[in-house]
Amino acid sequence: MLIGQEVTVLGAGIGGLAAAIALARRGASVEVLEQAAALCEVGAGIQISPNGSCVLAALGLEGDLAAIGLQAEAVELRDGLDGQQILRIGLAERGPGMRGWLVHRADLIEMLRAAATAAGVRVRFGRRVEEVVLADDGPHLREAGGAPRRVALLIGADGIHSRLRVAMGGPAKPFFTGAIAWRATIPADGAHPPVAEIHAAPRRHVVSYPLRGGSLRNIVAVETRTRWVDESWSLREDGLALRAGFADFGPRVRGWLDAAAEPWLWGLFRHEVASRWGWVAPAAPNRGAVLLGDAAHPTLPFLAQGANMALEDGWVLARALAEQDALVAAFGVYEGARAPRCRRIVEASGGAARLYHLRPPVRALAHAAMRAAHALAPGLVARRYDWIHRHDVTRTR
Predict the structure, then answer these.
(1) What residues are annotated to the active site?
(2) Which end of the chain is less packed: N or C, by CB atoms within 10 Å?
C-alpha cells in the first residue's frame, strides 16, 4: 500500500530518518519536519549494538557506518574507586554478526539524513509543529506561524515530548528516578582501543568510550540524588558539581572529568510505554497516525538501547505498511511486534542501574560472583542480553 503514499514524519532523529529511508525505498512520498534549524552536535556518543547494526546494514548503510564509527572491541566493567577490572566481554567472542559500533550522534544523523535525501525524502529544518489534532477526516498539524493542514499518514518520531502522543492519549506522566546524568565529549589522543568502559561505585557510575577515530572521548556520569532536574537535553552545569560527585574515583576517570568544563545535565525520568501506538481516522480509514521511538517508549540509557529500538521500529513499521492492505492492519502488526519487546527492554534498562550502583557489602559479593561466573563460563554474562542483541527485525516476523 506504500506506492505513492504520502507520509509526514515529525522529527529528524535516528528513528524518524531510518523510517523515512525504509518507507521511501518502498515507494512512499516522504516529508520529514524537524524543528531544529540545522543538525547540531548535541547528544554526543551512541552505542549501536548488533540489533541496530543489522537494520543499518539492511538499509545499505553498513559501509557508511564503518566510515563514521569505531567498531567496538569489548565492554569492560570496572571498579570506579580503584579502576580494577571486574569483567571484560570481548565482542568478537560472541560470534559472527555480533558487531557493535561507537559513533557520534551528529555523525549518525547526518549519515541518515544524506541517505534519506538520496532516497527522495524531503527533510525540512526549522519546521516546528505546535499542535496535532486527530479529527474524523484524518490527522491535522499546525506549524508555528501557519494554518492547520491535513496530512495522510503521520509518524510521530518527535521524542519524549511528542505532540502526537499527547493527541493520541493525553500528556505523559513520567516520574523522576532519583538519578541525574552529566554528559560531555573531551579531546582524546586516539591511543586507547574502542572499548566501552563502565566504572561503577556506590550510587554512581561513569560510562566512557572513544569517538571519531579516537579524537574524542564520550563521557556519561550518573549519580543518584534527591534533587529534581528537568528532563531536558539542553541544560548546562558547571563541571565543579560533576567533579565533586566523583572525587573519590580513580585518577583516570578524574582526569576525564577534569576536562569536562561545562557538561550537559539531564534528569532521568521513567516513562510508561504508550498504551496506544496507532490511530486510524474514523471517516477516512486510509488516513492515520502512529508513534515511533522515544515517542512510544522512552527508556533509561543504562542498556544503550534507545537509538537501537528506534531503528528497529522504523524497519518494522515500514515493512508492515508495505505488506498490509489497510492502515488498521498495518498498525496492529507493528504494535504487536514492537510493544512487548520494547516494554521488556524498558524494564531491563531500569534494573541495570541498580547493578552498577550497589553498596557494601552487597557490592563486593556481586563483583566476586560476576568474576567467578565469567571465569567458569566466559560467555555466560554476555548471553544474559542475547535476547536484545541477537534479535534481527530484518529477518524476524
Answers:
(1) 209
(2) C
